[in-house]
């Protein structure tokens, strides 16, 4: 099952990838909200998440940086990108 992340919720300022606390998503016939630790683990266990549709579809991956908790970020054209930060908040 692949999910499209459609909205994000920030837990603090500044609003960056690390401060996202939950994600709203859809999949054919399903929709839900998942907290960051659960979705990070799901993606690490071969779950497929993305942002956008069609030619604008960008895969979501897990970033692990020393001294921070793992977080999600989009990955396109061989580079980490900021698509999640452009999503509407809920």
From TrEMBL:
It holds the Pfam family DUF3892. This is DUF3892 domain-containing protein. It comes from Agromyces seonyuensis. InterPro entries: DUF3892.
């Amino acid at each position: 099952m692949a999910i499209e992340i459609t909205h994000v919720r920030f837990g603090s300022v500044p609003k960056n990838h690390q401060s996202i606390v939950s994600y709203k998503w859809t999949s054919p016939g399903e929709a839900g909200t998942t907290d960051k630790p659960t979705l990070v683990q799901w993606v690490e266990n071969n779950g497929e998440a993305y942002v956008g549709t069609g030619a604008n579809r960008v895969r979501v991956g897990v970033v692990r940086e020393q001294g921070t908790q793992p977080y999600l970020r989009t990955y396109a054209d061989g580079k980490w990108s900021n698509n999640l930060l452009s999503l509407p908040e809920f």
